[in-house]
Design a protein that fits this description.
It is built from 5 helices and no strands. The chain is an all-alpha fold.
Length: 162
């Protein structure tokens, strides 16, 4: 489909982020299982629940476009999750693996924050008020998750460094 208008680009990016969130729903249980820190595992499990809600919000955001909520493969998320899967196969002390998992998770969060930032800007420009609110809620959760991971990293990194 040619992207001739901002509305076309918005719809295309919504399809991409829908794929990204669905990929993350599948990957987060494996990532949580790889964590040895109880707090880190809980953070991943909490974000899994949030991500399932985020999928629903993205699907609802499609309504203002007048087009079906249909995902298009997000290659960026595929790459980020492939990297995380590869890192989880490495031999590492549990504390070091936790530090690695946080790093991988923050790459994902930063990608999502950038994507939602773009989508929110475009939704606002296009007058998609409901989509804007839904996507802004997703972005707020991504920012909060990133901040929580940063907080956890202080303890986890210290343990990995001892």
């Amino acid at each position: 489909m040619p992207l001739q208008t901002l509305a076309d680009a918005f719809h295309d990016e919504l399809r991409d982020v829908l794929s990204a969130e669905k990929q993350l729903v599948k990957a987060l249980p494996k990532i949580a299982k790889a964590a040895s820190s109880v707090d880190l595992r809980a953070a991943f499990e909490k974000h899994l629940a949030e991500t399932k809600t985020q999928v629903e919000r993205v699907e609802q955001a499609f309504e203002e476009t007048g087009k079906a909520a249909r995902a298009k493969t997000c290659e960026a998320m595929e790459g980020l999750l492939a990297e995380a899967a590869s890192m989880m196969e490495e031999e590492a002390d549990p504390e070091v693996m936790d530090a690695i998992l946080i790093g991988c998770a923050q790459k994902v969060e930063h990608y999502e924050i950038a994507t939602y930032g773009t989508l929110c800007t475009w939704a606002k420009q296009l007058g998609y008020t409901r989509a804007y609110k839904l996507l802004k809620a997703n972005m707020a959760e991504e920012v909060a998750t990133d901040e929580a991971l940063t907080g956890l990293s202080e303890t986890v990194n210290a343990e990995a460094n001892s």
